[in-house]
Amino acid sequence: MSQATTSESGQKKNSLENEGRMSSGVKSKSTRSDRGSKKLVKMTPIEREKIAWKNFIRKFMQELRNATPIVDDSPPKLNISLMYDQETLRSQQIAIQSHYNLCPEIVKLLHHINVFGGRTETFSFDYQKLQPASNFSTRRGEALQIQEANKAVKEMIKNTQPRLPRVDYYARFWKSMESYMQYNSQYPLFWKVKKKKKKETVEVGPSKTYFRQYVTEKSAKYPDKRPRVFFEISIKNVGAIGKMVAVLFSDYVPMTVKNFLAFCNPKAELTYKGCFFYLIFQNFFCKTGDVVENKGFGGTSLYGPYFGDEDHTLQHGERGILTMYNQIPNRNQCQFLITFRELKSLNGSNVVFGKIIKGFHVLESIESVGSKKTGRPKVEIYISDCDEI
């Protein structure tokens, strides 16, 4: 009896182990104890790591499938009518349709040439077949018409006259181009310095005896009796940057010097004190001296609205020359220029009346705040003080 019960309990144990293996799918033994508790499945560390990775990947893929985008990556809505021009598309459609309608006609012509041959023989070396097939009288009439048309064109070309005299036109054109190149170049034009001539400068030496000289009380103490003035230059919101001293050639142009000294008096009603530099062309000149409007468009003189040119003996031969500014010859007022280099283009049109002898570093500062193209100063620079020394 005991042996039978033992065998039956062994069979039940084996059947439970088989059912556990089939249900779990893991090659391990599972049994039930007498109390009904399950035993833990025995697995190696590698198997546990594989199962953990599978669970992690399964969970990650599930989150990836159910993920919601944080950024809107959908394509923007575009209005096609704004991207294409309706008129252009319509014209292209008409052109394509016309080409499509023309294709059958071209095919018909090619077929006709293939069947009946063309008017020109292009594949045969028999030059006798290359004779024109048109009528001789027709070709002769066309040739006469072309000849008459050529005669008419020949007469038109023969009787054509230039609107402007070519020599004078090209002379004026070359003069304007030469002055433009002289203004934009840093060095003198090479065709003007081929011959080594004596540099045309003004000398601060003893005055010539045959010139009438304008002498003031202050200038009488100098050996040459030429007046001297100073200019204090300042920049707005910065202050004074230095002084320049100039000598005036009263032995050459006494009227011009007298007019200039009248406006150099800081206590006068109309004075250079406070005048701005309106134009500063680098490597060319600077302009100032409008005592009326202080904008570069006004002016007056000691002798009236304006006075004439006095003498053109002195030349614009170097840097720091003081010369009168005038838009029209013989109409000098109070505005004047200070040159930054030799300017032969001003000779004969502007009257030289002085020269800077001290303070060239101030002149360099004035030039540095100018412009080469427009002449408009970068800062507001002006004459803060001036007087005769």
UniProtKB/TrEMBL annotation:
**Superkingdom, natural source:** Eukaryota
Question: What GO molecular-function term can you cite, just one?
Answer: peptidyl-prolyl cis-trans isomerase activity
**Skewed-composition ranges (Basic and acidic residues):** 10-20
The alphabetized list of GO BP terms reads: protein folding
The annotated region (Disordered) lies at 1-41
InterPro entries in UniProt: Cyclophilin-like_dom_sf, Cyclophilin-type_PPIase_dom
List cellular component terms (GO): cytoplasm
Tell me which residues make up the PPIase cyclophilin-type domain.
240-388
**One Pfam family linked to the record:** Pro_isomerase
Name of this chain's protein = PPIase cyclophilin-type domain-containing protein
Organism, by scientific name, is: Menopon gallinae
